[in-house]
Design a protein that fits this description.
The protein has nine helices and six strands. It has helices at 45-53, 80-97, 105-110, 123-172, 174-196, 205-226, 229-248, 253-273, 277-297; strands at 6-13, 17-26, 31-36, 59-69, 74-78, 115-119. Helix 1 (45-53) links the parallel strand 3 (31-36) and strand 4 (59-69). It is rod-shaped and about 135 Å long.
Length: 301
């Protein structure tokens, strides 16, 4: 499990050039890559995106690459058309001002477009110098995310353990729960007998048998409606799957978030069915644990 927040930095330099790479990331539902490069390295952006994207699944990741050549080869050319246009304009200006003063060569060279300077670019060579620095920065970045992820995972699993303990507590109340349902049904039928005048043995054996069968049938239907055995079984299965995903999936964030939705559904159903105060209190504690898990998962890749 890795955190979506991390930081990495590495630099290298020699007599020819210096390279530095800074990587930092924040929480995001999806993978967002922001690559900051010098304009003349723009052609390398797709390569860098693929390189970083292979190591990140989620998060807003900012990559800043600084690249400086100390002794770059370049060529200088003269724009003859621009120089001629400036000369003509200066001559016209001299006539208007009635001046024979000639502009210096330094002034002419400073005019826009007179000289063209072009550095010799080698994207393949640049990438060979950037790649090892980027790789080293990514190693620091991954290590930072792994350290933070380990702490987050331990915290999340502590709340999973609380949920598992709560499930055991609720399970222990199931017999009391079902006995309460049966007792309530028997009381309701007894009251029905008294109010209908059938109590005190004033009905036949066949009527008594039919009434007993009716009680059993109503009890079975009510137990099926209000029992939480299925919810507990699904809840246990979801928690087991949660642990398996956390242990085996290097980027489990989305799957764990989905499992939290399923766990929340089962907890809510248990809470809506329970007639027992103690179970209601446990359900509240379970919701609190689950909310803490979901809060931590916002930082998990």
């Amino acid at each position: 499990m890795k955190s979506m927040t991390g930081y990495g930095y590495h630099e290298a330099q020699d007599a020819a050039l210096s390279v530095s790479v800074e990587i930092k990331s924040y929480n995001s539902r999806f993978l967002e890559l922001m690559v900051n490069l010098p304009p003349y390295l723009a052609a390398l952006e797709p390569v860098i995106r693929r390189y970083v994207g292979d190591r990140c699944r989620r998060g807003k990741v900012e990559i800043t690459i600084r690249f400086q050549e100390h002794d770059a080869a370049f060529s200088v050319s003269v724009n003859r058309a621009a120089a001629a246009a400036y000369r003509e304009a200066i001559a016209v200006l001299g006539d208007i001002l009635q001046s024979d003063e000639k502009p210096s060569l330094g002034i002419l060279l400073g005019l826009e477009g007179v000289l063209g300077i072009e550095k010799k670019r080698d994207d393949t060579g640049y990438w060979k110098r950037i790649e090892p620095v980027l790789s080293a920065a990514l190693e620091q970045f991954d290590a930072a995310r792994a350290r933070e992820g380990k702490r987050t995972e331990a915290d999340i699993l502590s709340y999973v353990a609380l949920l598992e303990a709560s499930v055991k507590t609720v399970t222990a109340y199931v017999p009391t729960w079902e006995a309460s349902i049966q007792e309530n049904l028997h009381s309701r039928f007894a009251e029905l007998l008294r109010t209908s005048g059938l109590a005190g043995g004033t009905f036949s054996q066949a009527e008594g048998t039919a009434l007993e069968n009716r009680i059993l049938a109503e009890t079975a239907v009510t137990l099926m409606k209000y029992t939480i055995a299925e919810e507990l079984a699904r809840l246990i299965a979801h928690l087991e799957e949660f642990r398996a995903e956390a242990a085996g999936n290097p980027s489990p964030g989305k799957k764990l978030d989905f499992l939290c939705q399923e766990i929340n559904r089962e907890i809510n159903t248990i809470g809506s069915k329970t007639p027992i105060l103690e179970v209601s209190r446990v359900v509240v504690a379970m919701k609190d644990s689950l909310e803490n898990i979901r809060e931590q998962l916002r930082n998990v890749e």
